[in-house]
Design brief:
The chain is an alpha+beta fold. It has four helices and three strands.
Length: 78
């Protein structure tokens, strides 16, 4: 709560909030298949083949399929 704080204390809190925000990861945890195709430049069929072979992990939530972003980075770094 900022009520009753001096200007210096408010500035300090604002700076601390900015630092905390910068510490959060800025890349997504997962991406959809369509986004993975755009990010990698790999064709959709090839991406599904990599998923079938186990080279890329997937996470199913309901009917949606997601790929962990770390898996896409690892694929591109090979």
């Amino acid at each position: 709560m900022t009520r009753g704080l001096s200007d210096d204390e408010r500035r300090k809190q604002a700076l601390e909030a900015i630092v905390e925000q910068d510490a959060l990861p800025m890349e997504p945890l997962t991406v959809r298949i369509k986004t993975a195709v755009k990010l990698t430049g790999i064709g959709r069929s090839t991406l599904y083949e990599l998923i079938q072979s186990g080279e890329i992990e997937t996470v199913k939530i309901g009917r949606s399929t997601f790929i962990p972003y770390r898996c896409i980075k690892r694929l591109v770094e090979r």
